[in-house]
Task: structure prediction
Amino acid sequence: MSEPIAIHAPLTPRVGMAGFAVGIAIVAFIVVVALVGNTFVPHDPFTQDLGNRLKPPFWMEGTQGEHLLGTDQLGRDYLARLAYGARISLLIGIMTVITSGLIGITLGVLGGFFGGRVDDAVLFAITTRLSIPVVLVALAVVGLMGSGLGLVVATLGLLLWDRFAVVARATTMQIRNLDYVNAARCAGASTAHLLIKEILPNIASHLAVVATLEMALAILLEAALSFLGLGVPPPLPSWGLMIAEGKDYMFFSPWVIMVPGVALFVLVLGINLVGDGLRNLLGAERLR
Amino acid sequence: MLNLIARRLALGVLVAFTVMTLAFMLTRLSGDLAISIAGPQASQADVEIIRKAYGLDRPLYVQFFSWVGRAMIGDFGQSYFFKDSVANLIGRRLPITLTLGLVGLSLALVISIPLGILAALRENSWIDRGVTMFTMVGQAIPSFWLALILMIVLGLNLGILPISGTGTWQHFVMPGIVLAFTAIPALTRLTRSGMIDAMASDYIRTARAKGLSRARIVLKHALRNAAIPVVSIAAVQLGFMLGGSIVIETVFALHGVGYLGWESIAKNDFPVVQAVVLVLAAIYIGLTLLSDILNALLDPRLRTG
Result:
């Protein structure tokens, strides 16, 4: 059986520490915006004002001072919606990584540690998961069961564990027979102790890199699902949904899709830069 | 070699069967299908008629095995919404998705292989950093957003390409570019790291010592070895691209299999949803099998495996 590898995993890119710093700054800024941003924006993200529809942002003509990033097709303040949208993206990214991490790391560590039949079963699960078209199945689940934040997280969590499993399995295999693990085994440590106290802490750094990649992927997928109308339900201002709602006006007012799109791009770029920096810092590229 | 293919084939069949089971369970998640097909205005009697007509009154395992049995011979049942056989629908739409996938993959290879080689030959130079930055950016751009930007710039401002639809070859250019972008980061990095490893190897040192020209060393000796993972990953990548083309097809209203999947999800047309999931998974399984065989052909060391 050939080894499934997570092919969307970037292989040894080096942007350097400057990239890492920029990534941390971006992510930190967006986290702060998500936590307290809306208290500083004078407008409510849900209040409609049909008399003030599609007002342009501050760098364009005809802008209104009070709406810094303009208003959407229902006259809602774009800056307020953008700040609130950061909460949704980050929440979905973090929750999905926790869910998929739990599934993937459990499977990967078990397969890598025990080998044999257990490993065959884990490899089969990974192979099967990779052959399932993620976007289509996620759309189908949300389409059939109704949209909602919790359902999106559960669906993405159940679909995005493959890379966690691949990396956890490979790294566990490399260390399962190292001296410190054998020493603990000889000292009479239980299997649970070996897995949790000896294996997990020593593969954690590699898993942290995977977590950043999966978080970026989850955020992009949520945006795509919401864009197709089967993700986070309106009126919640998911950035993907904001792009979808702005789509009908984009030929006349391109900024309605530019603003949330740039936000999404910058957040994902920031997370990827952090992951890249972590990888270089930990020398994780040796393990792929 | 035959042994390898046989084992991979058996695994593929097993995976396909598991995906079939999951696809079946997926469409049963929503509860009573007869009610959702009949719609909110239907009376109890209507629902019963529909339940009988579509065989939904039978036990679940009977429904499952009859679906699997028929799917084996290419009969995926009838679509409720399109009033046509699912096999016909998919047969009509598949060439469009495959064309899109091949256009996307070709574009991705044409861009990422030269970029990867360039970055590898000038490792740690500003070219290398630029290429790495380009892949980071490519990875962070949401594909549906890139699609909208291309529509505004190429479709509206420059007016050189049609914005949506399926009619001519021009309709495949923008979706192809967007799809290519989903594969370019991974393929570029793979080419780069493969070339760096190859250029540092003993056979390249030998070739240099023989006094071969640099172009010959790079293109003939290094690239051939660096290409092995790229070619095999490209096949797998095509599988991912076809599975992910649903977003791009929907944005551009390109009537391929992905668009069909989206339409049928919206219409609760579960036989179509099941079949589309299965067909996309089967294509992916077939492509990974092909990738393993290609790998074995390109790298004799793997043939005995």
